[in-house]
Write a structure and sequence with these properties.
about 15% helix; 1 helix; six-stranded mixed β-sheet
Length: about 120
């Protein structure tokens, strides 16, 4: 294979790799613990909620500035069929409904959930 052909092949592979890696819109870092999830339930600070893998209310101070919490379900292990649930804080000013897509941080309970931009979400 000559040098020109090799350069063309490597350039083509590079372009394809870059194009494929930019298809998913993820505004928050996966490496920093952010996961796209779906809201299953919304409740108050003392509300009994369905069974979850982690309840962030236990890690927040009693005077935390959040009045509402949500149970959010996210996939893990690289499979959409493996799901975990977590209770996370909801910002007080956020209008949130069951079924909404949000981002949660699975490594830092101090982070409240963040809304997913529905216009850029790919399913």
């Amino acid at each position: 294979m000559n040098k020109f052909t090799l350069t063309c092949v490597l350039t083509g592979i590079s372009l394809l790799t870059t194009a494929c890696s930019t298809l998913d819109y993820e505004p928050y870092g996966y490496g920093e613990g952010w996961r796209r999830s779906q809201v299953l339930e919304i409740g108050q600070t003392k509300t009994m909620m369905q069974r979850v893998a982690k309840d962030c209310r236990t890690e927040l101070r009693a005077d935390a500035p959040y009045a509402r919490y949500a149970v959010a379900s996210y996939s893990y292990g690289g499979s959409p069929n493996l799901r975990a649930k977590r209770v996370v804080a909801v910002p007080n000013a956020m209008n949130l409904n069951v079924g909404d897509w949000v981002y949660i941080n699975i490594t830092d309970c101090q982070q409240p959930l963040k809304r997913v931009d529905q216009r850029k979400m790919l399913d």
